[in-house]
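Before relying on records like the one below, remember that each one covers exactly one chain. Contacts with other chains, cofactors or solvent are not represented anywhere in the record.
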Amino acid sequence: MGTNKWGKRIKAFRKLKGYTQIQFADELGVSVSHLGDIERGKRKPTQENLEEIADCLQISVEELQPNINNEHNEKRDLEY
């Protein structure tokens, strides 16, 4: 999976849930720069990162997972 696609989805869901990058990094127990690197696609999230992120956002890892169907429907889904 493209690292940048993971990051874009994480950022979109974070914003949808009303977290700032600082708040979300604090909630996850990571530095803001670490979270920023993930969101910009400079760092690949580990499975553990993904599980923690999904848990904080109250969604499943599968919902975070970028794929053709998710990319096609991403805008529509995030607007609701």
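The mean pLDDT is 87.
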